[in-house]
Design goal:
Strands 5, 6, 12, 13, 14, 15 and 16 form a 7-stranded antiparallel sheet that branches. The chain is built from 12 helices and 16 strands. Helix content is 30%, strand content 23%. With 476 residues, the protein is of the alpha+beta class. The protein has helices at residues 24-39, 62-70, 86-99, 114-122, 147-151, 157-172, 176-195, 241-247, 279-292, 309-319, 345-359, 447-453, and strands spanning 6-15, 48-51, 76-79, 105-113, 215-218, 220-221, 231-240, 256-264, 301-303, 363-370, 375-382, 409-420, 426-435, 438-444, 462-467, 472-475.
Length: 476
């Protein structure tokens, strides 16, 4: 084996349930030290420190502050943009640097303290955290929402993802209630995994019926979407096989990235050629398995990104995976139950998968999703070296359907949702409408139409659209 072969040799996770808890910098330090101890590597010898973007707090120099805490002087530093694929992109870059002989070791870490932020807000206090950026930098997304999406107030994932869910529901011919029941049956087993996971945020097994509680972004219920307000942190340490040998890391404690791939759908939901399916997912999975020299049937464990059910369903559709596969869809419990710490979840699923592969040799698949089902990573991990790494060059980019900002006339619904407020009441409907020359966003405001939208299938139905030049309003 090439002495530069990268392997994962250190893992750590923390979940803090007592609020207020530590700030993100404290959490980064805690899991970084724990992962380095697990790797038998003094933190001062880290060649690279990389941090996943945190939504909880904007630091002036996040990587520099952590390096200072650790007493490390890494020659490589990175702080990611906002994305659920960010952990795998950082891990992939670290592995590539090690394989090229540019690095011997790398730490990738991330943390959120959004539950603590909420506790301070509820008490009417500001979080007393350190090293705030001044001025505060722009939000860390790679690309802002389309102006038309912003004009219609459509930018929260809890509203964009159910639009894609309704499109898939209609495409496969599921009735509204059947989709809900099927979703609950798919996700209930995930709660059992979370109940057994000491790092999970919600450690309670629940029945399918218990998951069909109040709506947030119809048809999604509160108990079937990612829980963001958590205090969680994770870290992994990668090293060359040569360094792992020098550190005395046993071979059964090393986990290898056999192959991974990255792909993109369109950035705008309305611009997606097919709202309910994803050729990008299929391409990412195909490339990752090919690079790993393995297939889906070879996987002993799976963690499919689960921020919303449509992410699970598109993945299962694309790779031919039964949602009720006996291997299960998650090793953590998934984002709605183990916790969905903003951009950081894939560090938790990777660390959990690595621990599982240490305990029982084999292969595991870990997937990631970024933005509005825009970005996709597929990574194959193994207790056995082999394969070829791959990289962040997209193996698929989708061709965009034009987005028509302002439209008046008749259109056909391609996908939709109804937003519900904190108390459960309906607030507004959001539609993606097929119109001449492309697709347009539209809102529905009439209470009787919102009620009807939740009872009768709107996808494929003709609606009337009127506009004031900025906001399109649909009715029927």
């Amino acid at each position: 084996m090439d002495p530069r072969t990268p392997c994962l040799i250190g893992i750590a996770q923390r979940t803090i349930r007592e609020q207020p808890g530590p700030e993100p910098l404290d959490l980064w330090e805690s899991v970084a030290r724990a992962a380095a101890d697990d790797a038998r590597l003094p933190v001062g010898r880290l060649d690279s420190i990389q941090i996943v973007h945190t939504d909880s707090w904007q630091y002036d120099a996040p990587v520099g502050r952590l390096a200072e805490r650790l007493g490390a002087t890494p020659r490589h530093q990175a702080y990611s943009k906002v994305s659920g694929t960010a952990p795998q992109l950082l891990i992939g870059a670290a592995a590539a640097g090690i394989a090229a002989g540019e690095l011997e070791s790398a730490l990738v870490t991330g943390a959120e303290a959004l539950a603590t932020r909420r506790a301070y807000r509820k008490a009417g206090e500001h979080a007393p955290w350190s090293h705030a950026a001044d001025p505060r930098p722009p939000y860390g997304w790679e690309r802002p929402p389309h102006p038309s999406a912003l004009a219609h107030g459509l930018f929260l994932p809890v509203h964009t993802y159910p639009i894609m869910e309704t499109a898939r529901r209609a495409a496969v011919g599921l009735a509204i209630q059947d989709e809900m029941r099927e979703r609950a049956r798919i996700m209930a087993p995930m709660t059992e995994v979370a109940a057994a996971n000491p790092y999970a945020w919600r450690r309670v097994a629940r029945t399918p019926d218990e998951l069909l509680d109040r709506f947030v972004g119809w048809p999604y219920t509160r108990s079937t979407v990612a829980v963001l307000e958590v205090d969680q942190a994770a870290a992994v340490v990668l090293a060359s096989s040569r360094l792992a040998d020098r550190l005395g890391v046993p071979h059964d404690q090393r986990v290898y990235l056999r192959g991974w791939a990255y792909a993109e759908d369109t950035w705008e939901v309305a611009a997606r050629p097919a709202l309910g399916s994803s050729p990008a997912v299929a391409a990412a999975a195909r490339a990752a398995f090919e690079r790993a020299g393995l297939g889906l049937d070879d996987m002993h464990a799976l963690d499919v990104y689960s921020c919303f059910a449509i992410a699970l369903r598109q993945a299962c559709d694309a790779i031919g995976l039964d949602p009720l596969d006996p291997r299960g869809l998650t090793v953590t419990g998934g984002l709605p139950y183990a916790g969905g710490p903003a951009s950081d979840y894939v560090l938790h699923s990777t660390a959990t998968m690595a621990g599982l592969l240490r305990a029982q040799s084999g292969h595991g698949l870990v997937t990631g999703v970024g933005m509005h089902l825009t970005k996709h990573t597929y990574a194959v991990w193994s207790s056995e070296p082999g394969g070829r790494l791959g990289g962040a060059t997209p193996v698929h980019t989708a061709e965009e359907v034009p987005v028509v900002a302002s439209y008046s006339g008749v259109g056909k619904v391609a996908g939709y949702t109804v937003a519900h407020g904190p108390g459960g009441a309906t607030e507004r409907g959001f539609l993606v409408v097929e119109v001449p020359g492309g697709r347009a966003y539209a809102v529905v405001e009439e209470a009787d139409l919102l009620a009807e939208a939740e009872e009768r299938e709107l996808v494929g139905r003709e609606v009337r659209v009127a506009t004031d030049g900025k906001v399109n309003v649909a009715s029927w």
